[in-house]
Design goal:
This protein has eleven helices and four strands. It is mainly alpha-helical. Strand 3 and strand 4 form a beta hairpin. It starts with a helix and ends with a helix.
Length: 208
């Protein structure tokens, strides 16, 4: 199982960063444009047989004629994040995921960045600085980070967000997802703290 997961993660990184979502498992002479030939995905740890086995597991779907793609984009995003966290040094992540000005996250990697934030606390901070609304977009992301942890992270940073970021968080209409028994005490503490800013209180009221 570990080999399958590692192989699927490798395939995920290859298709994601090449921007080519379809893998061709057939004769190279018949390979359609905009597909990756499966033999080109071989590495020192990933052989042809393992690639074939992995492609025929539930993570992938065959779309005819020897073409395979991830069954769901969410699978691909999570496995890319898993591979980055396991195999790629964190110092290399910004160049792979952030915009050139280092202020945002590349459009095609927003899902990857969200999942990576669930796996690495330092990267969670990086996403909160740039696009905190991403972390509210999926219940799976919220559950993996932890509602109380994410709630505290967003509320404690409310004053440091730009007007645009605060607007995006508020208008995402997803702050209510942080309302749960796990966050009630935390939210109560913020409400009673008169030193908190209007930005913080605005988020609190959106949550409750």
């Amino acid at each position: 199982l570990t080999q399958i997961i590692d192989c699927a993660s490798w395939l995920a990184i290859c298709v994601h960063f090449s921007r080519t979502p379809i893998i061709w498992l057939n004769q190279v002479s018949r390979k359609p444009d905009s597909t990756i030939f499966y033999e080109d995905l071989v590495s020192d740890k990933i052989n042809l047989e393992l690639i074939k086995i992995t492609l025929n597991r539930g993570l992938f779907t065959q779309i005819g004629g020897g073409r395979f793609k991830f069954f769901h984009k969410n699978y691909e995003d999570y496995l890319v994040a898993f591979a980055l966290n396991k195999f790629i040094a964190p110092l290399q992540w910004p160049a792979m995921l952030f915009t050139r000005d280092n202020k945002g996250i590349l459009i095609f990697s927003k899902g990857v960045a969200s999942w990576l934030a669930t796996l690495n606390d330092n990267f969670l901070d990086e996403v909160l600085i740039r696009e905190p609304e991403l972390l509210l977009s999926s219940n799976d992301i919220i559950q993996n980070i932890g509602k109380a942890k994410l709630c505290n992270a967003i509320l404690s940073r409310a004053d440091n967000l730009s007007y645009r970021q605060r607007h995006l968080v508020a208008t995402s209409k997803n702050l209510f997802r942080l309302n749960s028994p796990d966050t009630l005490t935390l939210i109560s503490d913020y409400i009673q703290d008169k030193s908190k800013s209007n930005s913080t209180f605005a988020f609190v009221f959106e949550i409750v």
